[in-house]
Design brief:
heterodimer; A: alpha+beta; Heat Shock Protein 90; 2 domains; 5-stranded mixed β-sheet; two-stranded antiparallel ribbon; B: about 200 residues; about 80% helix
Amino acid sequence: MDNLAITYLFLFILILVIVLGMVFLFITFNNRKNQLLQQQLEDQLAAQKKQYESELNALRSQLNPHFVHNSLNAIQYYIQRNEVEISEDYLTKFSKLMRLFFDYSRTKTITLKEEIAFIKKYLDIEKLRFEDKISYKINVDKELDLNDLEIPTMLLQPMLENSVNHGIFHKSTSGTIHVEFLKTEIENKYQIIIKDDGIGINKTKKHNKNTTGTAKAHSSAVIAERLDILNDSGDWNISYSIHDRSDIDDGTGTIVQLTIQNLSDL
Amino acid sequence: MIIAFIYAIINWHILKNTPEKWLVVFLSITVVIELFANYFKRVEESNLLIFSNLVIILTNIILFIWFYEYIKNAKLLITSISIGLLSFLINMFYQNFLFEIFYYSNFIISIIILINVFVYLQQLLNNSEVLHFKKIPAFWISIAVIIYQLNLVVIFFLIQELITIHKNIFYSIITISSLVLYGSIIYGIKLRKLNG
């Protein structure tokens, strides 16, 4: 091989080394960049999830004062009337419920069995408060596995509270709340129907317009916001609808329909 | 080189508070010394090569300082400058400072510069700034420095004897390497101008 050929060979090797080196460098930097982007995205998602959880906690705790205020008012009412037994009974039930309330406020989910027991306790207290002006029925589909299926904590209580305070409260006669838990064809998905025979959502809206009351609107907004956050979290798929029964059939009152699917189990 | 120098001077107001101010110093020194070198070579028809040696030592010291602005490693800076100067001094015993290019010293300085580049790139790789590495002036200039110095190491020292026979190849490679280096400096200044 002559000098020129060796020179070209050396130069070719040099150029090859430089080109390959540059390609390697860019691949390394791009990989590292993608790795960091992925990491940042994961951090962002974790932060978002944390934010969702704190918002949910805030919303859960937002419900407490409303209920506590009403219940304490009722106990005060019985004490003022000197009805010791009823007020004691009320106070015992209330304290048990409050204990559950605070226990559940700290957890994200409870089983359907726990939720049903909880809403029974809640409705019992409301029955005491309204002096049997309220009755309730809870029907559970026998095929539902109450110990296995879960529900976000404090989800139904504000809806029942709406039925009581804004549906039946304004009714002149006694009222009934029906709560149904139904199985769907999809595994891990169930339906809940809360039906009352109160004045209905249309009249409640009119009533709220005529008075300065915005509690119902606020409570509904809190429910909607919480459901949005639960759906956005990716752990739940919850659909929610609320209708005046007069818009659907000849009945009066409000009907709330929920279908709940726990996605975190899938 | 002249274009890079003019471009750097025009953008001095942007560069003066950034590490790239050292590149302006680098270009200024190179231009001034090259002007002298050309004057002596063309007008005086002198064989003086002191200018090449001055360019090698001064510009590389400036580059060490420029890398220090990013790496922030005083030990590396002091070691780099010390070894550079020491190699230069030792070279003086073997070659004539006025009439010969200090090849050995240049070789050692090139290796040290390459070490600085790799330390910088390693730091960049472990830094969150890697997310926008294509917008960092130092990244592009470092790549050009690698290309330039690798060419220098290989051509000047490893195949010097072979290549001096074919002057046109020698000058072509040096010209292309210089174009890459000064082109990257212009691009780096432009990035600094755009991204601050």
